[in-house]
């Protein structure tokens, strides 16, 4: 009998000891209640409680959690019904406040997010809702974080997971996008044609400028050539004139032969001329050319040749003053 009583007391002591020793895992915190009243919070590790006086109240998850916000229908500012859902990332910062200030923390945050999501989306038009998700997330985060601060919870971020307009609105948006793409294509094509036309006009302008500069340069060269030719002609005329003044008959023959040859050449080059008639005075022309050769020799000397004395024949009249 005494042995049985001893074993009972031993078992009771083991149970009491195990109840007094608490091991809190990492990422969790336990609240301690003394006769139902919160007294302290147990951190991760081993802790000891007063048997029959203290007990564990709530086991709180201190890690970051992801809450799924159910899909709901929201009416935008321009009266378009859209379906939207979201996800919320939260983390408990104070275990006692999360345990005793709100009942069913996850459900409370989910409902709070749904309510504010309807408020934010309902204050915006459809185009803004579709194009400004970051703005919606930021506004929701500010509102939800301020509301959950008394609960000892930090809302890290809120993301719109899906946002679906009605099918007819989706079809209208697709047609609008197609029309916008076609408009941009037409504008791009027109800009390309405009650039090409400008490039062609610029090329024609540069070509005309270069062509005009070429004509200017050619005209300048032609004028310079004519000037030099005129100077040479003037020099030749001067020399021939000096020879004529000195009494050289071959100089006169030079001019006559030159004009004769030019006229004969033009007659031979005429496209209407099929037959060339050689003048009977061709022998005289040959003699004239011979005289031209003597004249050239005379011009090439140091000065114009002195007139040669003419032989006197019968009936010749002596020069005056002889």
Question: What descriptive keywords fit this protein?
Answer:
322 residues, disordered C terminus, single chain, rod-shaped, 3-stranded antiparallel β-sheet, alpha+beta
What does the model show?
It is a single chain. The protein has 322 residues and is α+β, with helices and mostly antiparallel strands. It is 57% helix and 20% strand. The protein has helices at 2-20, 95-100, 105-122, 126-131, 133-148, 167-245, 249-269, 282-300, and strands at 21-24, 28-34, 37-42, 45-48, 54-61, 65-75, 81-92, 153-164. The chain has a 3-stranded antiparallel beta sheet. The termini are far apart. Mean pLDDT is 80; it is low at 301-322.
Mean pLDDT level: 80
In DSSP terms, counting alpha (H) and pi (I) runs of 4 or more, how many helices? 8
Structural class: alpha+beta
Anisotropy-based shape: rod-shaped
The residue ranges in which pLDDT falls below 50 over 5 or more consecutive positions are 301-322
